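Bumping my old thread because nobody answered last time. Still need a sequence for this structure:
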């Protein structure tokens, strides 16, 4: 009976929490790990069109990063709230989606299906490693000085998104 209860709790935690990443890299030490009130680790990734994008090119602007995957149910649940918020904030905050370890051919139809018009980058593992992302979705809120102000792990409601964006929005 007790082992059934523990199994049930573990299952509920998985369902309610974030998606475990598939084939994710192992993580070394905490060097470069994204942490609240610390500088955001740099990254350089290609977007779905093949253009190289770096965090440094957004210096002086607040940045919202949402790590997701097309197969992740909580990601699909929170994306409509992010898509809805984007037009309200796009002139003040850079929105970046980072798809974890999937090809553009799979991601592009997903972006169309969800109406995602902000920039989406493809991560072969470098972002995952630098930010120590071990489940999805994860979101990072970086202020205009490049400091991580909030981190959200797992599903984020539209209200939580609004509160987290307020932490980096000076407009």
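Sorry it took so long. Here it is:
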């Amino acid at each position: 009976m007790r082992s059934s209860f523990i199994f049930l709790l573990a299952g509920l935690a998985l369902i309610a929490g974030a998606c475990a990443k598939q084939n994710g890299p192992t993580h070394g030490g905490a060097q470069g790990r994204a942490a609240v009130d610390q500088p955001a680790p740099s990254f350089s990734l290609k977007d779905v069109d093949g253009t190289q994008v770096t965090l440094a090119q957004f210096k002086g602007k607040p940045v919202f990063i949402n790590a997701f995957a097309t197969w992740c149910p909580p990601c699909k649940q929170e994306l409509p709230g992010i898509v809805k918020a984007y037009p309200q904030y796009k002139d003040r905050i850079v929105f970046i989606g980072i798809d974890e370890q999937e090809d553009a051919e799979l991601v592009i139809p997903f972006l169309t299906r969800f109406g995602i018009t902000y920039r989406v980058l493809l991560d072969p593992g470098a972002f995952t490693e630098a930010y120590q992302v071990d489940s999805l979705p994860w979101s990072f809120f970086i202020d205009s000085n490049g400091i991580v102000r909030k981190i959200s792990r797992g599903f984020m409601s539209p209200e939580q998104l609004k509160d987290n964006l307020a932490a980096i929005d000076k407009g």
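The helical segments are 2-16, 73-89, 104-114, 126-131, 158-166. Let me know if any region looks off to you.
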